[in-house]
Amino acid sequence: MAVFTPLDDSQVADFLTRFDAGRLTRLEGVPSGTENTTYFVTTDRHELVLTLFEQGEHEELPFFVALLDYLAEYKLPVPGPLHDREGIALQSLADKPALLFPRLPGKHPRAPSLGQCRALGDALGRMHRVSRRFEGSRPNPRDLHWLSAMHHRVLVYLSADDQTLMKNEIDDYQSYFAEAEPLPQGALHGDLFRDNTLFEGDRLGGIIDFYNGCTGDLLFDLAIVINDWASDSEGRLEPARYAAILEAYQARRKLTAAERDAWPMMLRMTALRYWLSRLLVVYVDPPAHDLSPHDPALFRRILGQRLAHGALPLPEETGS
């Protein structure tokens, strides 16, 4: 979240008349973020978040609206967008696509507690269970096809050892998944890091920022969560957080035999996914705005740990 397009009170007050959301009482720009303009909007009836989309494929925004509407119908802790008086959510403001959301309670967890890990695992398991029936489709933009196509662009910036590592990893993924049983599919968050969640203590207030949302392997989503939520600063898996997330998840959705077999490989592949995407931002395609990119080294360490030590054992199946 950030402010790249300035708005004044009169613009936002006029925008709000399209909705049954009350009268503007306060407008506050949100300075942090990387891609879109974000404001906190307070009315005499609601606390809201206004997002203007600065980058990306704007034609894909209806997919995100449909996904959030669908998940909100199932009472998942997501910010279902407000629809205007004509039933339309996706709007235009200052010549940018715009969406208005309820402001969800809580803060991003820096060092997740076991209670927060259990709450996140439970919510993700519920989300994946219902998302298998979501009828929308958007191919995963960061899947194995993307890794295979894009890794060549960063090799020149890597040491000889890391070049070999990256190429060998992608060869391993291609060989494994070409022969593996198909994995369960559904709608994914696609980027469920700690800073895309909001907590009040151990209570999950919301899962936000679905703009990497897509459809694909559910296990891909779960592996992203584990690599972020259950890794220490050296990339090692922390057993208690790992177990808390996965036990809560599996109480909602059991992993299939194919998913359990693919688990160590998926942890490696999603680690490389973020190592590569961060390298691309640093060396090839810097952000349009003056923002500090994330350090690629963390996910290089995570990948190294997954190669050296594999995955911790998966908890026993308890869900349905």
TrEMBL record:
Keyword Hydrolase in record: no
Family statement: Belongs to the pseudomonas-type ThrB family.
InterPro entries named in the record: Aminoglycoside_PTrfase (IPR002575), Homoserine_kinase_II (IPR005280), Kinase-like_dom_sf (IPR011009), Pseudomonas-type_ThrB (IPR050249)
EC number(s) reported in the record: 2.7.1.39
Taxonomic source organism: Pistricoccus aurantiacus
Enzyme class: transferase
Higher taxonomy: Bacteria, Pseudomonadati, Pseudomonadota, Gammaproteobacteria, Oceanospirillales
NCBIfam families membership: PRK05231.1, thrB_alt
A Pfam family hit: APH
Reactions catalysed, as given in the entry: L-homoserine + ATP = O-phospho-L-homoserine + ADP + H(+)
Single GO molecular function: ATP binding
Record key words, sorted: Amino-acid biosynthesis, ATP-binding, Kinase, Nucleotide-binding, Threonine biosynthesis, Transferase
Aminoglycoside phosphotransferase domain segment(s): 27-253
Gene Ontology annotations of biological process type: threonine biosynthetic process
Pathway field: Amino-acid biosynthesis; L-threonine biosynthesis; L-threonine from L-aspartate: step 4/5
Keyword Amino-acid biosynthesis set for record: yes
Gene coding for it: thrB
Protein name in the entry: Homoserine kinase
